[in-house]
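ugh finaly. both done.
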Amino acid sequence: MLQQAIEDALRVTKRNITRFGDQFPHVSTGDEHYTLNDNTEWTAGFWSGILWLCSEYSEDSVYREQALRTVQSFRRRMDHKIIFDHHDIGFLYSLSSKAQWIIERDEGARQLTLEAADMLMKRWREEPGLIQAWGREGDAVNGGRIIIDCLLNLPLLLWAHEQTGNDAYRRVAELHALKSRRFLVRGDDSSYHTFYFDPVTGDAIRGGTHQGYRDGSTWTRGQAWGIYGFALISRYLKSAEMLETAKRLGRYFVAHLPEDGVAYWDFDTPVEPGTKRDSSASAIAACGLLEIAAQLETADPERLFFQEAGEAAVGALAKHYSTHGNEQAEGLLEHGAYSARAGDSPDDYTIWGDYYYLEALMRLERGIPGYWYERPVL
């Protein structure tokens, strides 16, 4: 099943290289065609990551050649400072230039990734002690705002610390992770999407949501970001505290899944005929669950739970939500939700869902864990 799913992904990706040219897919909009952009969205890195994963699996050079073209595009984006007023710089450069460094040890790719880490560091706000998610410094609404998605951007800083020995990268990542753990993770192991702080004093104001059902609900993609994000931070910091947080969020996610094993877009949304799923949330969670299992000792009684939960999530996606057999498909997973609350691509392809689905498949089939941290050099 795993090999077949990966082969399907290779075929879709090869067709998409011709379809997309040098543009980057984002989401589809009801017509099963990806909207394309010139490397301006926060999601552009996921296409690059898919290409690198395909390149590692296949001997066909077409995937590597296109992956290199995307890295060149990210070089231009950095040189011209194109749309960096957000925290998603880790999503952009971990899966593009850092992927090239991990695979090929290309020094230019390493330097570009370090520049990206420096760009993310500019979003650190010392007074409230956080990485500002959106907007410019001093923004009246967003100046003291964090979101759970940022946990997946912190590995870029922790990698930069490993590469350079500069403790500032680790300090910022660790402080932001601790703040996220304290304020975004609730006592019942669910999570807030976003939290507001006074940008001057750092005083906590309130939890809320941008894409969830309501402020106190649990947006499933946010919960998935938390599972994987805290697990990756645990790997870098060797932190039992961070790993336990990832496990708490993971147990909650698994316990609240519907019968077919793929999440609705929010765990608290009323379920009725037509309620939207978010296959991308289950794909992200699958990677996080498998990452947790990878950090546990073989004899740990919880290791089998997380491993099997990750495998079950991948299996449910492959069986019920993949585009297997659709020769016109541009996406790998159906029924992803960009923003169901806003009606923005609520039941469509999402390029991040495709990436995490393929990463989870590659973890299980080849032991390749994506591009969030260094691997042993063979």
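ok and the 2nd:
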Amino acid sequence: MGNEHRLLTVVICLVLGGGLLAAVLGASRAAGPQHGAGATGPAPSDYVDIRDVPGAPDRAPAPGPDASTGSVAVDCGRNEQGHYNEDNLVVSPGLRAGAHHTHAYVGNLSTDAMSTDESLDAAATSCKGGDRSTYYWPVLRRLDRPGTRPHETSAGHGNTGEIVPEASVLVEFRGNPASKVVPMPRFLRGMTGDAVAHTAGSDADVRARWGCSGSPDRSTTRYPRCPEGDRLTRTLAFPSCWNGIDTSSAGHRSHLLFPAAGGVCPRGTFPVPELRISFTYELPQGVPVALDSFPEQRHSPKTDHAMFVNAMTDQQMASVADCLNTGRACRI
């Protein structure tokens, strides 16, 4: 009788233990994906079903009589060359691995922390029209697969997972809805977004918009869950009001500002071509994704950002401005 009692006790413990384990695993899944050993994030609230995002009409302001309504697409590929590093030439020049996360590039094939105006001017480029500018952004990773290649494991700081290649990258310049634009100066540095937005306590510099290819009227600052067959989309627009003097500034922002809603530039600045970089990604439905980030930023989608250095020749940039000012659609 004692043996039967002990056996019954073991069975009950196994059943209860299995239920407890299932509950713990369920709670872990409900807490959302964990990104990297010992790192937290993204949070469940960082994801949203695109069907729950309200649709919105095109909010672009109506062009005025002096508007520059053209567009220029620059064909720089989609990083087929596998140009990745943990550097940030705009924010941390001269500092290897200063970004603490991985950036992907198109354009200038030499760009790293040690690049100079002279080295950029002499380098090869992925852009078919010869634009030697550099355009770069933090990589997007899928969290259901470990990264195994060197460029996927070199960043550290909790940035793990397989890097999702861009299915398409569109580098595009647009005009200004209120006035003509002037050419950008050579080697102008620019950035958009806020890499520390999660801890900054403000969304003032959050600029990236995320969406799904089948719902072009819906965009969000969160990671969207897209219907099967849709591509995930990501768009970053840059400031386009230049102070007319500097190609960089101490905070990387004050020399190049965003215009007001109607396109009017702040006093003391001049409209230059507006750079936009748009991406699409092909992912299985339901796969969790996360941007590379600083550890304390928890891979929040609000920390998305991008940088560029204009290394077009004066003639190339003059052609961009002319195309925008005359309302044409051009490719270079």
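summary for the 2nd one i guess: DSSP finds five helices and 19 strands in the chain.
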